[in-house]
Amino acid sequence: MFIGERLLKKDHVTPKGDIPAYSTNVFAPFVHTDKSNIIDFSVPYVLWGIDGNFLFNAIPARTEFATTDHCGAIRIKSDSIDPQFLAYMLGEVKHLYGFDRGLRASLINMRRIEFNIPVDEYGDFDIESQKIISGQFALVNQMKSELTGWREQLTDLHFVVDIGDYQMRALPLTDCFDIVRGSGKYTKTYTQTHVGEYPLYSGNTFAAFADIDSCDFNVPCLSWTIDGLAGYMMIHTSPFSATNHRGVLIPKSNKINLVYAKHILEPIFRELKKGRIGENGKNEYTSLPPFMLESLSLPCPVDENGEISLSAQQKIAKSYATIEMYRREVLDRIDSLIAQPISYCCPASPR
Questions:
Q1: Topology of domain 167-303, per CATH?
Q2: Which terminal residue of the chain has fewer beta carbons within 10 Å of its beta carbon, N or C?
Q3: pTM assigned to the model
Q4: How many beta carbons lie within 10 A of that of residue 232, not counting itself?
């Protein structure tokens, strides 16, 4: 096993070379280079990411590649070791060594890893059994990958409740909410010196950035992500603060149901966002600053007198809450299947 020399992107880019150089992500090259720090390509290797998700990837024999100092390489010296089996087994046992809990997969720490390898009746490594187990790994990983794809689709799927039976009125968003941007003073350094009980929300859609000793907002309200995955919203019912990567909508009237407003506004916000979205919605970096909301309206049900109907909003919001409950149940089931431990086996060796 070894860790590669440092390769700088500015020095090793196509068209200077066509040798893939791997870094933390061992499945996609970091750059391409015209030289390699690997001496012997006659044997297969297993690459591992030293940081991040600690991924493992088998590289067939006679395949040129290079590694950075964030990627390690295991040279397989025995024909009785299947590289794909080795990669899978390293991935299976990494949690036992704490690589998924902050421990760096350094060369020293990797040397500590132990795992079982099937042997034949003579006590020699059984390459055929390894290949059978590798096939089982591949099949299960393919199924988990499909489940993950379905999960992403279900998470992103926007359900629309039929409101055709209601008389609607478009209310200017500025009549319904004060539109406020969070504070730029909340840096990582600030959070480290002001630890407290109040959540500080930033560009992360689902969780607090930190917990600090003060709150800027202490009324039920909505917030949205200004940049990153722009336009996704949260409902707040307890005190919190926000960085300048998050905007806040503070209700001006008690006739606005926040659950209703979130489900109506979020798809509008997501449609309005500007910026980069990769293929199939991946690698998104979009923006939705407060000034882009000023001309928006909130479609709202009204009663027979043309007044805002809180009861109608609550009924619609209840329908959305039911849909979200069922969505959550399905997502939890998918998560349980993805996390389900699998026992891998192979047929007994012939005698």
A1: Adenine-n6-DNA-methyltransferase TaqI; Chain A, domain 2 (3.90.220)
A2: C
A3: 0.64
A4: 19
